[in-house]
Amino acid sequence: MKVLIATDKPFASEAVNSIRDIIENAGFELVLLEKYTEKKQLLDAVANVDAAIIRSDIFDKEVLDAAGNMKIVVRAGAGFDNIDLDAATANNICVMNTPGQNANAVAELAFGLAVYAVRNLYNGTSGTELYGKKLGIHAYGNVGRNVARIAKGFGMKIYAYDPFLSVEAVAKEGIIAVGSPEELYSACQVVSLHIPATAETKNSINYKLLSKMPKNALLINTARKEIINEPEIAKLMEDRKDFKYVTDILPGNHAEMSDKFAGRYFSTPKKMGAQTSEANVNAGIAAANQIVDFIKNGNERFRVNK
Ligand code: 3PG
Description:
This protein is 38% helix and 17% strand.
């Protein structure tokens, strides 16, 4: 059994070593493809392996069709929008994620970005504080819960909206639950995004919704590029000089945004929310264990395709 790690953005070496131990102790062989620059390298690498651990690496139909022996692909992380689930199912490949394993890392980065934003990108001018501000957590999953935990330490007033949880379920956790995105954005000066990229959420963070935010608004995106309506956020920031946007996912209109909104817009060059040694180890170990348990025992917990 050959298990491929295919990571354009490599794991920390501790994570690779931990994965190797688990794979080799199970009697399997580890194959490593890191920092590949062409799709051809990925197509060659998947051709001859039984399982793969990936991150945001694109596993589209072409890649999955080329993976003749592949039985399982585990996305070491939360979002699996980079994998064509229908093509995986058609090729009889099980797809899993490792929910929660990198959630704290992403939540910590959300606050790193938030402080950077409210202190005017550390440019020496007088900024503002997070203490006492209303924070809206858009989707209360694993990352959202970690954001709420950290926000308590900052002394923020915490609101949340989650389309899949009842107001009662969220309210039980000691935060203010609201019943719609409109309510969340109207109430909160700071909003942190934690929704996945799906057909429903694509472009859903738009002018109309963002314009509901109170004065001196801050939007933090550690979720996905696709959820933002990029032309509309640019328009909004033109109309509202009090609006700040910080993101961990490079927007398509980054050049325009940097140019027009210097001092109140920032993007990391490469998504780094989950890029910590701890998150890599947690997600990598979980992925390796899930592969071994699937191959040896048929355990399909965490399967995300049909
Ligand atoms: C996730 O969905 O788990 C995060 O976006 C992290 O993605 P990454 O593994 O590509 O850093």
